[in-house]
Amino acid sequence: MFPLAVVSAWMWLLIFKKLAELRGIDSGRLTLERSRAFLENPESAPDGWRGDLIREFSRDRVFDPEADRKTVEALVYRKSNRLGRHVRTIIVLASVAPLLGLLGTVTGMITTFDVISFFGTGNARAMAGGISEALISTQSGLVVAIPGYLMGSVLFRRIQKNQARMKRFGLDLCTACEFGDTLNSAE
After folding, report:
1. Residue 149 belongs to what H/E stretch?
2. How many angstroms separate the CA atoms of 20 and 25, rounded?
3. Which of 96, 108, 110, 123 sits CB 3.0–4.6 Å from 119 for a disulfide?
4. Dihedral Cα 57, 59, 63, 65, nearest 10 deg
5. Is the distance from CB of 108 to CB of 137 less than 8 angstroms?
6. Could you give the C-alpha distances from 7 to 4, 57, 148, 160, in angstroms and in order?
7. What tens-digit pLDDT sequence spans the chain (187 residues)?
8. How far is CA 145 from the centre of its chain?
């Protein structure tokens, strides 16, 4: 039961951490004009991941359309991967929980068979301890695993949506950058 408690605590710590991280992500969009304005003055960019991308891009920008596009893609990729961290760990921990419950089932049955070998089948009270150990550990493994799987899948879907949002913003940023460059070159 102790390893199962450790796995459960670790899994829920990661779940709450990821939920708090996702809560801080806004879902609004920036217009092309505002993105261009933030590119011209990156210090006025909004807080959050959009502002971080704008500031990092402004710092690394070389004013070559192809190089700038690759820079935006790299920044979005890095930010997107950072957002997806720990979700697979949550799912793995949820997968390990029933196995740890099964391990408790096996040890409970071994205890039951030890009682049977020592007392025989006539002492039901002595056998009940091993059977109880087996059932409680199985139940505990499932109680940890099922919510863990559900939360892992919810987090995975939310992260995929936010990663798609980041990619779309990266494309918008490239468009704003190219649009701004064509305006500057036309003047």
Report:
1. helix 124-186
2. 9
3. 123
4. -20
5. yes
6. 5, 39, 10, 25
7. 899 999 999 999 999 999 988 887 766 666 666 667 777 777 766 777 777 788 888 888 887 878 888 888 898 899 889 888 999 999 999 999 999 999 989 988 998 888 888 888 777 887 888 888 889 999 999 999 999 999 999 999 999 998 988 888 888 888 777 755 443 433 3
8. 16
| Packed helices 2-23 and 87-119: angle between N→C axes, nearest 10 degrees | 160
**Structural tokens at position 185:** 């070159």
Q: Can you tell me whether residue 25 is helix, strand or coil?
A: coil
Residue recorded with tokens 């609004």? 28
Counting every residue written for the chain, the total comes to 187
> What's the token pair of residue 177?
């950058």
The pair of structure tokens assigned to 45 is 């960019």
Nearest Cα to Cα of residue 8 among 108, 155, 139: 139
How far is Cα 147 from Cα 43, in angstroms, rounded to an integer?
Answer: 42
